[in-house]
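Exercise 7. Predict the joint structure of the components listed below.
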Amino acid sequence: MAVLSSVEISGLMGSVAKYDAAAFEQLYAATAAKLYGVVLRILRRYDLSAEVIEATYLQIWQTASQYDPALGSPIAWMVAIARRRAIDLARRPDTAASDAEPEIADAESPGVLPRREMSDELKRLLTCIGRLEPDRQRTILLAYYGAFSREQLAAKLDTPANLLKASLRRSLFEIEQCLTS
Amino acid sequence: MSDIVNDDDLSALAAEYVLGTLEPDERTRANVLLDVDHGFRGLVRVWEHRFGELHLMVEPVEPDAKIWQRIKGKLGAADAPSARPSAPPLPTASAPAVRSEPVLVAETPAVAFVPAAAVVPSASPSETKPDAVATAEQKLAELINEVGRFEKRPTEEEQAEEQAEELTEELAVDEVDDPRVLEHVSHEPAPPVLLAPDRPRQIVRPPAPQVGGWRAMALVMALVAFGLGGLIAAWRYAPERLPRQLQPRVVLNLSQGPTGHTPAPHGTQFEE
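Solution:
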């Protein structure tokens, strides 16, 4: 994966919005591995993940002009598209039925990121998540990275589903309060 | 989602949508809402922005080159109706891993976990003393790691849980005691307002030739809606002025307004 700065990726995004195929290829080369990593953690199957990546980049190609820098970095925007698609696919009944035998036994753990590579936004979010009780921190992160439904989370964490829902919503509310304070 | 009664519920729904925790039927309905409700779309964008940077913690996995070839082949024909994929992609020998083998983990043990201790001292040179926020983040990152392990091997579950709790207990203490954390937070730029400017999800196509027909149709529909609206208003407020044939029957009870349903007080769903 070519390492490009956020500014360079923003520049590529501007060109892709004008349907510049060369810029799109560069954008893909610089970002596909990240998106694939995110999607694999959610779907835990290579064929489905490849499908999602393909559809995601076609959507990026068609809608790059809608990217709004005010709502985050280009890569975060792209990851959001990929996650939406991956979660939609994971929740489809036919996918859910085959979920019993994922190709990747379980999502591998995300690596530790050196502080200098963290964006200010990430630091702020992690500070806010860090203020939650330990159990609720784990639930939020497990939910985000694996995109498990509440029912799946409740089973994994051995918690009654209604308690999990209440605690999840309280966590989200507290994160919102912390980020907007 | 019949229980949506206030903005906080809608925001919570958007947050859960972004997090990915909605059950399949809830997600289906949220997707419909996303298509029709401007406000909900804005909330989803805001939450996607809030969680947007968490991807930085995920290791990249190089996809098979064939994926790009397929995308490239579809670029020109992306709008053509025949551009749908005809078959699911087949796994290939050059793929990063073969079906049914969790080799991703096995091949990249060095990438999978870097001890936090090795990383903290190498953080930015300006940090000459331990930074509470930095250690908090490191610990949280370790916690994420523990979460992964906790999923992977049930036998290590309890151990990982204990470690995670220790880490985060320390984290909570560090984080609260150090005033620099507050400083750090308060100096951040203001986050986006809740209802951020929204944009259409679809590409706006140039007006087609038959737009005149649609306009006429829209006008007729608007007139119909207006007429019905007027009639309903008349039923509600001045039924006695209507011609006898149009007066509401008592059985409809429209003039008394809705009864019974009172929305839950603001924010109650967050209190246990």
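Discussion. Chain A has a mean pLDDT of 89.
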